[in-house]
Amino acid sequence: MKIFIKGGRLLTGERADVLIDGGAIVALGDVDIAELAAVEVVDAAGLRVAPGFVDGHRHVWQAPLRGAGADMTLPDYFDAVLDRALSVFGPADAHLATLLGAAEALDAGITTVFDWCNAALTPQYVDAVLDAYATAGVRAVVAYGGSLSDTATLRRVAELRGRVTGALALLGPQYDSWETAVDQLRVARELGLLASMHFGGGPDAPLARMEAAGLLGPQVQLVHVNAMTAEDARRLAATGTGVTVTPVVEATMGHGASPYTRFAAAGGRCGLGTDVAVNAPPDLFEPLRETLRRHRAETGTMAPAATVLPAATADSAAAIGLGSVTGTLAAGRRADLVLLSGLSHLTGDATGAMVTALGPADVHTVIVDGHIVKRDGRLIGLDLPKLRDEAVSLGRRALEGPDLIGHGHAGASVR
Fold first, then answer.
1. Beta strands, E only, 118-210
2. What separation, in Å, do the N-terminal and C-terminal C-alpha atoms of the chain show?
3. Which one of 104, 138, 373, 376 has the minimum C-beta count within 10 Å?
């Protein structure tokens, strides 16, 4: 089935039709469909056509814990969420939580999530998470955090193709031994998997050693890097290493100032992530605004609001290895896009307006890989209120912790 999006405007203001076929954008602009058969027409009059948002760092399994950590410090989070709450999750819980998190992402116009999946630590949990993504319809990169000695599971993750692909979630050399990190990065490279690591940066970070050992580059994604120095920024930008920041969570939990501006000054381009639902909303509108406000404050300029949008689209896709797949509206890219309402009174460039003024309620239609997953403001095939109701008991059990519940999740302390 072909999809024809008719009569919309790009964020930049130009009128543009979009023709989708086989899950890809095949034409963009003034498109004539008079001779095409079996075309589903989507009326985009009064709507803005934009790339789907790309969430470059999200712990999707935490969706049932939404809002539970408003005042958590990082040690609090490790104890209450990664050690205690995660220990309660069985495979069925991981499935429900992933499905809920994916539904929340799609509802907010996020068409791609990089799932730093603490919950995918054994084959049973991997199965549960992958099955949830098969049902949800979101594009996902599932970063496996289990044992690399489990070669069968590792191979399965490496062989994922299509809308759901694999990656590795590693502690990395700042939080693990150098020898272990080098070994794991070697495995990632041999398997062709992106290696994602939380990273602090700063004078004590082993970035110079990593560069000398050839361990930086587009096959690596570093998340947060709040202590990034000017030299860190230069080194990461020069090697093309992916950097993803999560400014709302970083500010809320006191990680430090977002390094977006420091990285940009070195020629780097950050991606954005939502990170954890325990103290942040499950959308990228707030991270965009947080980035804009801080960037203007740090540069002392009125940097155009539109300049930060790529951090949630094209630059975020590039940071997770999907720059040639999604994040941009262009012929040949996968058809991951959103139609946004609320800006029909504007006829010119509305990119800045989207960044500063819109929210999840303005996400009218969402298309992922050529499939309509939200239309006229309602998800198709996923009942978000029902999923939230189903997850209530899971959230309560998880917040009570394993001491009261009595069943555990092997490896739950993995960060």
1. 139-144, 164-170, 195-199
2. 43
3. 376
User: Long-range CB contacts (< 8 A, 24+ apart) of 341-348?
Assistant: 341/46, 341/47, 341/377, 343/48, 344/46, 344/47, 346/13, 347/9, 347/13, 348/13
- pLDDT tens sequence across 104-146: 999 999 999 999 999 988 999 999 999 999 999 999 999 999 9
- pLDDT > 50? residue 83: yes
Using CA of residue 209, residue 211, residue 215, residue 220, what is the dihedral sign?
Answer: positive
Q: Is 349 helix (H, G, I), strand (E, B) or coil?
A: coil
pLDDT value of residue 121: 87
Task: Tell me if residue 368 falls in helix, strand or coil.
Answer: strand
Query: Cα-flanking dihedrals φ and ψ of residue 159, to 5°?
Result: -95, 0
| In the predicted structure, residue 314 carries a pLDDT above the cut 50 | yes
Q: What are the structural domains, with CATH classification, of the chain? A: 2-50+330-379 (2.30.40.10), 52-319 (3.20.20.140)
Which of 114, 138, 133 is closest to 56 using CA atoms?
Answer: 114
